[in-house]
Amino acid sequence: VRGRTAAVCERGRPVRCGDSIRLTHLGTGRNLHSHHFSSPLSGNQEVSAFGEAGEGDYLDDWTVVCSGTYWWRDSEVRFQHTSTEVFLSVTGEQYGRPIHGQKEVHGMASSSQNNYWKVMEGIFMQPSEVFKAEQYHGEL
């Protein structure tokens, strides 16, 4: 998870519901990207990998849609594409070749049970001191 395009994101800063972020694949360094093209299997909006070493463009930005103030570990979350407003989704369509059995990830115009996501692995970073103070001392 990185800050939106051209923004500085402080390491360890909690992600707020409503923040714009980029999702970068650690293995390839490419960002989750979408644009007004049809996806190959479902005909919904295409979602692909784009950029190099985490650098791409504004079409890599996604808004975190969750309840409450912050996106908490183990909670469900939605990602809405900042430019085109589709929700990051997965349904039953599977590729045959070259990635047999992999499901198509795409953008859907409406929210549904197919666009809830939950973090399953990653690196947990301790909250910053500013966040800790905000949590325990609301008057600051």
Strand content: 25-35%
The strand line-up of the biggest sheet is 1-2-5-6
What is the count of distinct domains? 1
Rounded to an integer in angstroms, the radius of gyration calculated over CA atoms is 16 Å
Shape verdict: globular
Structural class: mainly beta
Can you summarize the main beta sheet? 4 strands, antiparallel
Q: What is the average of the pLDDT values?
A: 85
CATH fold-level topology: Trefoil (Acidic Fibroblast Growth Factor, subunit A)
Number of strands: 8
Helical proportion? under 10%
**Poorly predicted sequence stretches spanning 5 or more consecutive residues:** 136-140
- CATH architectural designation: Trefoil
First and last CA, distance: 27 Å
Pfam families: MIR (PF02815)
Keywords: Repeat, Signal
Protein name: SDF2 factor
Domain MIR: 12-67, 67-122
Helix and strand topology:
Blueprint: E1 2-3, E2 20-22, E3 31-38, E4 45-50, E5 62-65, E6 78-81, E7 87-94, E8 103-108, H1 129-136
Antiparallel strand pairs: 1-2, 2-5, 3-4, 4-8, 5-6, 7-8
Question: If you had to describe this structure to a student in words, what would you say it looks like?
Answer:
This protein is mostly beta strands and 140 residues long. It has a single domain, classed as Trefoil (Acidic Fibroblast Growth Factor, subunit A). The strands form two sheets. The protein has a four-stranded antiparallel β-sheet with strand order 1-2-5-6, with no helix packed on it. Strands 3-4-8-7 form a four-stranded antiparallel β-sheet, with no helix packed on it. Strand 7 and strand 8 form a beta hairpin. The C terminus is likely disordered. It holds the Pfam family MIR. It comes from Turnix velox (Little buttonquail). Keywords: Repeat, Signal. This is SDF2 factor.
